[in-house]
Write a structure and sequence with these properties.
By secondary structure, the protein is an alpha/beta fold. 26% of the residues lie in helices and 22% in strands. The protein is built from twelve helices and 14 strands. Helix 1 (16-24) crosses helix 12.
């Protein structure tokens, strides 16, 4: 990267994930937040005023961003003329989000999105950068469809799967066939804090709309292949998921059960987790955790409060690997849902796409 930072806009900057983007990018070596945008209700206010009483993070509001005037995210042409690319975390109906993101792309402004609107679009890469960086190649087909030279949309997958899919991935050579997973998901995944959602204190809710479907289907695209200008989903493994909201502020835990076509030894599994390194680690990307996967021998770990910030919230922690009476193995995993699972995962995706030349200064 050159020393001149790329100019970045954050769409949906007043929401919880938008705030996380702003916080993560405060001292980023490649990117500078020069524009924040939200709905018409917030447009025209200083960012500090727009999030007053709503700042949900423990870290302080970045001074450089506090004084920016919030733009209307729907003013695509104006915003596209001011930034090199945008991160998207808008809270809009899915069809409206899909149109908005393609509008930015058609205005030659790459979009790296936290939203689900384009996760099922065949020529839109949905990336966990350590797992499927090769899917970036589909961007050229998407550009042809959109009629753009530099604009495109890339997305990150749902937060519910980003604790357990990274743990399964290094084991793919053994042919995982069946996975059962129960995720225990923090309230920040719903954009909430305990102050705004007091009924979650001392409570569990055994339903999160759309999460189980996403957790079962999205890994198939991640493990798919690029063919004929589209991503063709994998057929295996079969995944059965239950997603439960729990009274934790941040951090998604997963209890995982897996059967293989060829059962590895426990030592094989532990060694593959220990040695796994993806393209972001090999490139030394700014947000890439080293190591990506961390295994605890202590049977009481990982714990949400103790371990969600591993690798600055970008690592996945694993524990309690043991044989299972029905499946081959069971274990637990943990990831930070608004860092690795949301804004941080999108930032790492942008870093990979920048390194590969897909995102450049205008």
């Amino acid at each position: 990267m050159s020393q001149k930072k790329l100019k970045v806009g954050v769409l949906g900057a007043t929401g919880m994930v938008g705030q996380r983007f702003v916080a993560l990018l405060e001292h980023h070596p490649w990117y500078e937040v020069t524009l924040v945008a939200a709905s018409a209700n917030s447009a025209g206010q200083k960012y500090a005023d727009a999030v007053k009483g709503r700042w949900a993070l423990r870290s302080a509001l970045p001074t450089a961003t506090a004084g920016l005037t919030v733009k209307n995210a729907s003013d695509v042409a104006a915003i596209a003329g001011e930034v090199d690319f945008v991160f998207c975390a808008v809270d809009m109906p899915k069809d409206e989000t899909a149109r908005l993101e393609e509008d930015y792309a058609k205005h030659e402004t790459p979009v790296v999105s936290n939203n689900s609107a384009h996760r099922g679009t065949p020529d839109v890469p949905m990336m966990v950068p350590e797992i499927n960086p090769e899917h970036a190649a589909v961007i050229e087909a998407q550009r042809r469809r959109l009629g753009t030279s530099r604009g495109f949309v890339a997305v990150k997958p749902n937060c519910s799967l980003q604790s357990y899919v990274p743990a399964i991935h290094p084991l793919m050579k053994f042919g995982p066939k069946r996975i059962a997973v129960a995720t225990y998901q923090a309230i920040s995944g719903a954009g909430k804090t305990f102050e705004s959602w007091p009924e979650m204190v001392d409570n569990l809710i055994p339903f999160i709309k759309g999460e189980e479907e996403k957790s079962e289907k999205e890994p198939m695209k991640i493990w798919g292949r690029v063919e004929g200008g589209r991503i063709v989903a994998a057929q295996d493994p079969v995944i059965s998921a239950q997603c439960i909201r729990v009274p934790a502020s941040d951090g998604h835990m997963a209890a995982v059960f897996v059967s293989f076509e060829r059962k590895p030894s426990k030592d094989d599994v532990l060694e593959l987790w220990k040695s796994f390194s993806g393209k972001p680690q090999k490139l030394g990307l700014p947000s890439a955790p080293k190591p990506f996967l961390q295994y605890f021998e202590d049977e009481s770990r990982p714990q949400t409060r103790l371990d969600r910030d591993a690798g600055n919230g970008m690592a996945v922690t694993i524990g309690r690997l043991r044989p299972d009476a029905i499946f081959d193995y069971r274990f637990v995993c943990l990831s930070h849902n608004t860092v690795r699972g949301a804004a941080g995962g999108a930032v790492l995706t942008a870093e990979l796409l920048t390194s590969d030349g897909y995102i450049q200064a205008k």
